[in-house]
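Q: What does the assembled structure look like for these inputs?
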Amino acid sequence: MSAGLSRGTLLRMALRANLLQSTWNFERQQGVGWAYALQPALDELYADPATRRARLAEHTAYFNTQPTLASLALGAVAQLEGERAGGAGPDAVAMARVKAALGSTLAALGDRLFWFSLRPFAAAIGVLVALARPEKPWGALVLWGTYAVPHLAVRFAGVGWGYDRGPAVLAGGLRRGFERAVTLLAYAGCVVLGVLVAYGMAPGGEMRPIAVQSALAGGLGLGLLSAQRARPSPTQWALGLGALVLLATWTRQG
Amino acid sequence: MTRAFLFTLLLAGVAALDATPVAQTLLSQPLVTSTILGLVWGDVHTALAVGVVLQILAASTTPLGSRTPEDYATGGVAGTALALALAQQSPLQPWRDSAALVGVIVGLLAATSGVPLIKWQRRRNEGLSRWCEAEILAGHEHAPALASVAGVTLAFGVAVALCAAWLAGGVVLLHPFVQHESLRLSRAWTLAQPLWMGFGLAQLLHAFVQRRLTRAGLFGAAMVGAWLTLVMGTP
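A:
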């Protein structure tokens, strides 16, 4: 293995990881963003311009994973590129295989943690705070902070974790930690949603009219039923409900 | 007013960048953008009325894999800004409720109309990525940076144009409608708002519970406990 990458290089990779999806497309998905984020490592590892360009072009190929945990893959692949630059690492085919394996493993975990758990939890707690303190911007700050702080922390620290541990980055306690976070967020999310529904029925302790409470309960019931199927999407359902309410209002009012 | 409109368009571009091409910090979420717009337009109450509903509905929309999700970044900005522009015409509550209803519906429509535009951008980016690889092999190692700048610029421009179109169209076409039908629209809002909230909360609940009895029990206990605390007050 060649000499390790400098901390400055790892930091530049983490900064560039923010643009991982800047050219997202159906063909190579995050490919170009991935190459751009890995470029500082390739610049440091390969002194020969022709080899460096060949490696950089190779990394513009297809890659896709959950964008936060992509940092771990970036670090792990930078470690492999270090071995490759020293003449010992995987060849291009093996590297593509490692990237594909890392991408799907990290996506499976990252989607559950960030998209299915942290994102809805941040939204729920942000909305709860916004309803309870409507005169201040705390709801927006809580939503943004609840998601952005762990997201950016993992994005910046993740390159180092991946670089230190290599392709087996999720083999140790990191996966267990992420899995535990998913479970805890699900429990916390259930509590926050319970409080939100109660607040919707009696904001500030004042019971809302029975028609409003019925609409809330009806929406909950319909939402739980519609969630069993992917189509129509929640947005299409919401548009349909809006049209239905308008129709009902116009019909009733003559 | 003009400055508020210009700021709104700028925010639409920034939100679209945060949604996918840059950073993904949830700055693009409707609650965040509507709060910012509320502060800029000087009407946080109307902005939050729209933002909270759109946020609950946006939270169940996930950008998984190659699925193109609804564009709630632009929808949130366009819907809230339209509600704020309409609400400025009158201080009366029914008028403001009507503006909120129209804002949510336009926000949902704008988010839906953003899907084909995002797909179009993604197809354009395919050519960009092929160009990038060819340029690198030709010796231009700065090609990934240029491609990233091009992708970001395209996303920003499309979001600003989409928001401007919905905002201008909404103000011109819907202002007379809100003016004549504010009472009916206001009544519709009192029913539609809790219906949308309940529907969106159920989507989130489904994601959290995942058919586990303990989690469903926790939700029920939290709801009853919070309701009792709110209605009876703390001891």
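Chain A touches chain B through 104 residues (CB under 8 Å).
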